[in-house]
Each structure stands twice: as structure tokens, then as C-alpha cells.
## 1
Amino acid sequence: MQCRVCGAPIPPGANACPSCGSAVPASSDNQQGQLPPTAYAGPTPPTNYGSTPVPPPPSYGGGPYQSGQPSSSPYNQNYSSAPYNQPGQQYPPYNQPANNFQQGGGYPGAPGPQPPYSPPPRKKSRVGLIIGIVALLLVVACIASVVFASKLPGVSQTDSTPTAVATKTPVGVTPTPTTGSTTQANSTPSGNPIDPQAASIIIHPQTASEVDKDTLEPKAGTVGTTFKINQPIYVTFHLDPSKYDITKEQDWVNVRFYRGSESILKDDPLQLTKQETVGYFGAKYYLSTTNGAAEIYWCHTSTCSDGKLAQVVHFTVTD
């Protein structure tokens, strides 16, 4: 008996082919007849039972994988050019950017060439300019104030410092009348009226550029009413000892210098400790004026707050 699958001889009584392992059908003397196999799975893989090795599978001629002939497989098609370079599909080379924005070759509507980035210019500081302008304005203001002050008819800064001096006369000197008095009746820069009693005590007022330190009288040729700026101006006067008595009450004499109606010096009264007969006060003007004046007061207090106007002299100060 031979195997119907591989054709190998099957020994009697065997249930399977010793070569391929196929099942051997039942004997033909089966009363019910031969039954068809219940399952068929194709050739059974060879088993290693120590029998003859299973021959290799048959070779099929004409196969595209063994004949070495070109096959019709779609994977082995010989294209004349790359399928991705067909007309209508223009792809850039693999080593080029898809969109070259620097050359304007990007997608439609892409911006053109862009300039290189540069930082915005720094704003220049104006602090130095502002400081310079402020300094210039301050200098101009100072110069203008100096010029304006020099044009004013008022006193200068130096004039505000009291420079008046008063000297009492030595005892026993008899006042002598002098000429050139500059008293002007009913013309006082302060507006105060002349007191008759005070005017009877202080007499013979006049102005001079020099005084004799021994007699306290004006030097000859120095009496006048016109003076220069920065030149001493002396106001001299006589006292009538018969009109006052220092043993009964204290007495002072004060002189106030004016430019127009403005007093330019602080009060510096002279106290009489004896029956004096001559005295003088002095001052300097640092600005010119045509309305210089000096008022002479008779007082009974050290501040001369109760002073009575006795005499007035007028003069002019020129450059």
C-alpha cells in the first residue's frame, strides 16, 4: 500500500504514512464503506522521526522572483524621472529653503525684502541745554538789576550804612555867624514843620566839604551847596547856650540826610554833656541827586523820637 499524498510505501497496519505523516484510510473491508477524511490541512510539515528527510518543495518555474526577469510589480517600475518632479509640481531642491523671504520668493502675498534690524536712535539728553539756558537767564537778570539800580534816583547799598559823625564843640567857644546858609523856609523833605523854640537853639546851619578839627568850623573856601559823589558833606551848626540848660534836662542833636523825600542814613543822635556852642555831622553820597537835604533836630531822648525840627539845609550831589 502506498501513501496517497506522497506516494511512499506504507507498511501494513500503519495508521499514518511514515514519510509525510498523512493518515492512512481504513481498510476497504469496512462494511459501511470508506469514510472521507474529517479534516484536511494540506501537506503536514515534516516531522523528525528519524525517517528519510522530506524532499524540498517543488520549484515553480516562471516565477518573477527566480527567473531574474523584470516583473510587473508596481514597486519595480523604472521611471524616467522622479515622480515628484512632474510638470505642474515645482518643488525646490532638498537643500534649499521652501520660502526665501530675503529674495521675495515665498508664498503669494509674502512681504518683499526686509532690511536688517537696526535699533532706534537714542534721544539726546537736554539737561545740559536747560542748565545752560537757566544760567544765562540768571546772569542777564543780575546784570539788568545792577544797571537798573544804578539808574534809580534812590540810595545805593553803601548809602544805607550810617556814616554820619557828630562832634561837640569845646567849652567856651563862642559861635560866630557865617555866610552861605542853605536854609530854605517851608521846604522840608520829611514834611515836618520847623519848631520855633528848636530853631532858636540851633542856629546858623550850613554845608561844607571840610571842617577845621580845632575850631569845628568850616574851613575857608569849603562852604557850598554842590558836592561830588563819594565826597564828604559836612553839616555844621551853632548852639545858643542861653536857650537851653543841660542841668535841668538831657539834650541831644540829630541830623537826618535825605535824597528827595527818602532818608538814607540811620539816626545817630549826639548827646550834649555840657553847654556846647558848635557842632557838625558828616556823610557821603554814592549816587548823584539834585534834591539832597539835611534836617537838624533838637531832642530830649536818646532815640530822638521826640525830636523837634530846628533847621534844614539843601544841596546837590553830582557825578
## 2
Amino acid sequence: MKSFLKNLLLFASLSVLFATLLQYPIDQGLRKTDFHLFHDWNRIYRGPLDAEILIIGSSRAKHNYSVPVLEGTLSISAYNLGEAAQKSYIQMAKLRHYLHHQAPPKLVVFNIDTDSFEDLSTRSKTYMPYLSDSIIGRELARTGEVTAFMRYFPLVKYFGQFEAAKVGLQEYFSWHQYENPKTKGYQALPGTYNKRHVEEVIRLYPKGIPTRIDTKALAEWDRLLGELKAAGVDILLVYAPEYQTIQAHYEDKGAVLHTARQLALRHGSALWDYSDHPISHDTRYFHGDTHLNDVGAEEFTRVLAVRLQEELGETLGFK
């Protein structure tokens, strides 16, 4: 029995050592890569971004808000922190990570969608190499996005994340260097509308796409917006254009919009709702039902920038 226990302890020790030795190059490689999923996290560490406007959200933020148009129209600096499949808790952690390492912006624009107030975990775990960062690790543990096992046991966080591990090893050992396809966080999508995605979603949810408002998620939103206002950072909630087909299939989009309006009011802000804007009725502007194409993103951002200039320009110094 003693021999068995000794062998078991030896095996466990060697396993932990191997996992630790393997995790190190993966972490370090991902922390320096320009691979699109990790570029923005890394860019925050590298030096001043001096963004006066910060965009935060999921892929709808990433693809729908053209930073070049925003900067060109308002003559200010901006950055887009949107990322695909990035649910609210990750958005909040990324923003706090930004504010810890960068000068605060004048304005944070939150792109709101039907997932914004749900207590959801993120499929695309782009925070993996940064869990040792006290801000990121603490926030994601507090909201339940990650467990102590993921944070402290080597290599566990990369289980099922083969692509990320491969990128990390390639970058660390200089086997391959990835280029960043985005422009200050914004990534344009090609111009042809594809309806297959919405058809698949409707097939999966024939009775309507669920929309939920979770108390926990809403409390986290209140906490974050309160922190921003206390720090003197202005906030704005925006619901970007969506094509009408998918909008008609939500269970209760109105509840999401109502919740967003009330949240904004509690923190001295507003919700700008573009879900019924003319852009939302024209497939020429869409890549898919929830993502604008390059033409649509430029047109929407131009509309948004003009309104920012008219309504907030003097207050924020954008004129």
C-alpha cells in the first residue's frame, strides 16, 4: 500500500511539473501574439492607447463600429474592445483591465444586445493567459466565469482550447508569427448578405430566441457603471442595427431594451436604439442578420458619430 501511494504521489508530482512546464510557453506566447483573439488584451499592456472613446461589447461591437470613421468624423482617438462570443462578464473584466493599465477615456460606448443581461459564460476564453493578472483573475472568479481550479492548477484552463495552446507554442518558439487583421480593434466584414445563419437560429429556436434578464448580471452592470461614473467617465448604451428578420424572432426584445433604458437612466446616461433605423431594413448593409458588413459599419458609425457630435460633443470636447 505504501509503495502504491508513493508511486501515485510521484506520478501526480511529475504530472503537475509537466503541466507547469508546458503552460509557461503557452502563456508567454499568447501574451505576445497578434493573433486576433488575443491582440487587444496584449495591446493594453504594451503602452499608451490614449483612447478618448472606447467601444466595448461582443462581435457586434467588433464588426459594427468603424474606428477609422469615428476618428475621422470627430477628430478624436478611439479603440474598439469588442470580441466574438465575449459575454458581459468578460467585457467587464476587459474594461477594468484597460482602466488599470491605461488612462481613462472620456466616453465608454457599450454595445447592448439580447445577451447583455444574461448570466452566461463565454465560449471563447480569450482571458486564459491573463488569469495571473490580479484584476482579470479576481473579477472572473468573483462572477463565476472561472474556478480556483482553472486559475491555480497548471494547464487546466487550456483543456478543450487546442487552438489557443497551439498559437501560444508557435509564438513562444517563433515557429509562426500571427498578424493582427483589425484596425484599432475594429474588423470589417465582407459585403454580401448571408441569411443561412438566421435560418439556422430559427430552426434551433422555432418558438423564438430566448431573451433573459438575470438579477446577477444586472447587478454587475450597475456595479460597473457606478464605478465609471465615480471615476468621471461618461457612458452610453447603444443597440446597433440588426436586420429585421432576426428581430422579429426574439421572444422579448422589448424587455431587453426596457432594462437597458432603466439601467442607463440610473447612471445618468441613455440608450440609443438603432434597431428600427433604416439600416436595419436593408440587406445591402449586412453580412449576417446581427453583423453589419463594411459598408453598413461605416454608415452606422457615421450616423452615430454625427449624433455624438451634436448631443455630446460640447460636453466631451469633441467639437
## 3
Amino acid sequence: MSTPLYPLRFREIVRDYRFGNRWIVEAFEKTDLPDAPHHVGETWEVCDRPNGESSEVLDGPLAGQTLHALIDTYGGTLLGSDVVARCGTRFPLLIKFLDASNVLGEQAHHSDALAAEQGLIDPGKTEAWYMLKVRAGATIRVGNKDGVTLDKVHDAILGGTIKELMQEVAVAPGDGFLLYAGTMHYSAGGVLFYEIMQNSDVYIGLRAPDPGLNAEEREAIVRKAMRGVHVEEGFSAKATPIVLGSGANQRTFVFACRYFALERLNLMAPTMVACNGKRFFVLSLIEGACTLVYGERREQLRPGHTVLLPASLGMVTLVPTEPSVFLKAYVPDLVEDVIRPLRLLGVPDEAIVALGGRTVLNDLAILVSSQGT
């Protein structure tokens, strides 16, 4: 008989990337992170990659087991019936904290269709950034400026000036950006953010090809990269959040697309999370302190701690011991989890659509239109 599931905390998978520094170590109360001079560029909070990198349970009777092994054992009991119906039993998300103290280079990511066409083992990558901390004057570049064409993209990649074609956006803590597959992006540094994405490692570099290559080789590289770039007039990756509640607790829908949704929970009083068998939830505490209660279990959470709530748990209670802020991630049914409940609360359709940014790629715009009023 399998061990009953419970809220799962995992050991972080740490990436030593040069775009990072020690900001994650300084900002959060994580333990057992590598000492300097390690650049803690990323901590992978929850993941199960095809190459065998899989989050390892930290505590409880399942300690030492990987997320991959748990999915093999529990399947839909852990993932949820709706998630399995949509995604199968391949874990659908990769969630991380990312320190871009330094330059994060020019890039984009494949769509699902392009990744399949090129025979990649991963699907495409739509990702999103939620700004946690920023240095004074920090900006990111995301999406194309108006007036940009694919011909201009071609010339800019070849000439090493592609970031000049991207929109430069000033950022503040709490800003959310949906980077659909194909969205060009770059950061000059000075930002620490929460990142959620499809479980994928596909990458399209947009820097100029090696000048040592001949003209034909350089042209082939640029043409291949261009196939994955999305260009659109009036594009904006910035999502407009919807804030609900005016009492002790506040719930904010930050952004949503077909692959994932993110909410922010500001808690001053206990609240319950219902795990009804349809989907798992991933909670990351970014401010405060909180006790997670499930049956007889008590888990003390501090800033930077992430916990996965298996789909079958039932009711889980969050008891803040000081004012606390969680990010709550999940794979949504956009109609049942986002559109319908927000409409019932009187939120206008244009505000619901704005959770997906301003783009023809916005899943909510299509669904709101097809659902009627």
C-alpha cells in the first residue's frame, strides 16, 4: 500500500549561472545553498526534467524520493484528473526563482508546433515573470516595438542590435509579464523574479552569429532563429492583475494562459486551499511567515519556501504567523478556474482578457469571445 500523500517540500536544484549573483541567498531564508563564489543564478523549486533532474522531497515519509518517482507511483492522485487529461503524466511546469543581477542575453523560445517540427524532445516554451525585487531604474526588454518587421529582425540579429527592436519596460515589484513562445526578451540586469514555464528547455539565441563563420552559414543561423520569433503590432507582454477582497486577506489574479495561471495571496488571517482532485497547486512564500496545516502535519514556511499540494489532499489550511504573501501556481481550466468565477464576481470581460497581455496569442481573449456573456 502506498504512503499517503501530504504537502511536499523539495530540495532546490541550483544553477550556477553568470547572469546571477547572491541575491536569492540574501532575499530569502533558504538553507543549504552553495557558498560564494557560487553564482546562485536560479533555484529550481519544482521540476521533473526528462534528463533525470527531478525535485527531491525534503521531509516526511517520502523524503528522498523524486517527483518523477512520485508521479510514477501516484499518477493522477498527485497531478489531478484535469491535469492528466490535458498534459498526460509528464509534469507540465518548471518553477524557479531567477536572479538576473547581470545581463540575461537576447533570446526567444520555440512554440509547441516549431519544437515538434524540429524533432525536439521538449515542447515549446511559454513562460512568465513575476517581479520580486528590482534595483533602482531597472528595466527589461520584452516583445517588439511597433513598426518592427521580420526583415528588420533579420538585419538586427545579423548586426547584433536585436535588443534595440524590443520594447523597454520599467519594472517594479508585483509586475507580471507573459512571455508567449516567440516573444523576444532581454534584461540588462537588476531584477529578481519568480519564473513559471512549460516544462521545457528549448532556446532560440538572438545574438549575432559568430563572425568567423562564412556569410552563408551566418545567414542560415539567422533564418532558423527568425522562424521562432513572434512579431506583432500593439504587442504587450505585461498582464494587468485583478485584485479581489478588501478584508484581512486579498487574492490577486496575476496572469493566466492555457499552460499556467498565477495568483498572489496576501494573508493576515487563516485561509483554506481546496485540493479537489482536479489539479495540484504550487505555493511559494515570498514574504512573511506561515504555518501550513494538513491533518496532524504542521509545516513552518519562511520566505523562499515552496510546497506542492497534491491534487487529492482535500483541505489545506494556511495560518500566517505574520502578514504573509504566497504565489499560487497551477495548470488551469481557463473557463472554469478563471473566466467563469471572475464573471460571477462582476469582473468585466476586458479585465479578464488583460490577464493574458495584449496580443493575438492571448488564450483568454479567444475563450471570452466564444463563451459569450
## 4
Amino acid sequence: MNLLSWKKKYSAISLLATFLLSFDLTAKPYAFITNQLDNSVSVIETQNNKVIKTIPVIGKPAGVAVNNNKSHVYISTPDGGGFVVLDTKKLQQTNIVKVGGASLGIAVDAKGERIFVADWYENTVSVFDSHKFQLIKMIEVGRSPSGMTVSKDNQWLYVANRMDDSISQIDLTTLKIKNTTKVGAHPFGLSVDSNGTHIYTANVESNDVTVLQSNGLKRLATIKVGDRPYATALALNDSLLFVTNQDDSTISVVDTKTLKIISVIEVGEKPEGISTDKDDQHVYVANWFDSTVSVIDAKTLKVVDTIKTGEGSRAFGLFISE
């Protein structure tokens, strides 16, 4: 082989290696953990459960919403009056968007086109486009809106109105409230199943979970869980519901067919945010007082790893990328 041929072959191999490496890096799922007392976000690579970077975010970061379509993560900043935009490939902050009072809950629609920000003090949900981050509409909801989630068919946005003890269902075509239903005392985190038929909300003060059906937003059941339930996550094809109990430092596991608790799992102190990895098996729990993340295997219902993060880990929302 002459020198020119060798150089061409070497260049081709180098290009291929670079492509494969870059593809591998962008394909890895990350968990974005807000550390409210540290003013930072810990980035965990869920393939090996290691913190690979800590990103400074000013404003007491709390809520998280991952936009896989745009390679963005949106971090609500209650003390900053808005949200921060992170690039999931470069793992750095790219924008700051002002909203108003105290933003907490944050979500993104199924197409990645719109961002929803709950304002705790103004009792509104602000809708932004994800291109130029311009305000589209401000929707009045109940008092102290907190958790939000979007149905996978992109038809509905569900909002937990903490001080009104209610859940609002917003039509994402008209951006108007379709239904509002009373639930337990002080609802906070909530989840909707893959079919969009059932909604589960954690009620902090009544120590229970309300199960609603999407059609008419009717109440189906109330399930007693641990002390001060905060947030919820579904796993194993929606067959199990995981609920963080803040004052018990536990996770209640509910069989979604029988609506019975099948296990109670001890995690770190004051668990708050919870989200399921893209493998639908591993559930990540942010522990506020321990400044850690517990990883639960949904098949064995055991904690399989504990990851040290920053101080005051909250991670309220869907915080794992695909």
C-alpha cells in the first residue's frame, strides 16, 4: 500500500470513529437533577449511574422538563422568575426566559413545540414556543399550580392546583380548560398513562393518590399511601405506579390493575422528584435531605444504586432524556 492510499484509509477510519463516538454520546440517556440549595443541575449518565457534569443554574432550580425533539432541558427557577434552557448535547446553559412570579412546575408538549410553566403566585400557566421562547398565551388555572403532565397523544395538559385541591384538564388545541375536578388535599405531582386514559395525582396533605379517568376527568379511586406523598411515576408498561413519600423516606408501589400497594421501598431522606428511565424498568428518585438519587429496579422492587448529587436535590418533573 502506497503512502497516499494509506492516508486515505486512515482518514476514513478516523471519520468513522468520530461519527460513532459522537453518535454514542448523543444517544446516551441522562437524568437532570436540580439541586435547589446548590443552584446547580447534576447530569447523571443512566447507563452507568455516574454524575458526568454539574451545571450552574441560578434561581433555586426546581422543576425539570426534557424536550427530546429539540435536545433541550427546561429548568424552572422559582427565585429567578422563569426558566433556564440547557442543551442536552453540549450540557450547557443556552438561554434564560422570564415568566413572572414564582415558576415551579414545567412541562413540554409531545411534539416539543410548546413549553408550559406553572406560576405558583400568579395562578397561571404560561405557554411558550420552543423556537424563540416567545409567550403564546397565559392560562388562568386554580390556586398555586404545581405539577403538570401532557398526554402522549398531545391532546391534554393536566395541572395540579395545590391550594384548590383540584386538577385541571386543558385542551391543547384551544388552550382552554375543559374540566376541573376536586381530588385530595394539596395535589402536587401527577402522571398520565401511555394510553392517556388514567391520571394519578399525589395529594400531599391527605396522604393519598387520586385516580382519575381522562374522559370527563371523573374520580375512579383513592389510594392511601405514605406520609406527605409528593410525586409519581409509572413503570413496566404502566403496570406499576411509584409514589414518593416525603416524611416517610419511602416509595409506595401501587399495582395499577388492583390499585393496591404491593411494596414499600426505603430510599434516601425526604424523597421528592421521581422519573422512569427509557428502559421502563429503572426508577430514579431525588432525595432532598440526603442530596442523593436512589435507583430502583421496578422488577425486583429494590434499590440497586445510590448516587451522590448536589445539595437539596428536587428534580420535580420528567427529568430523564431519551
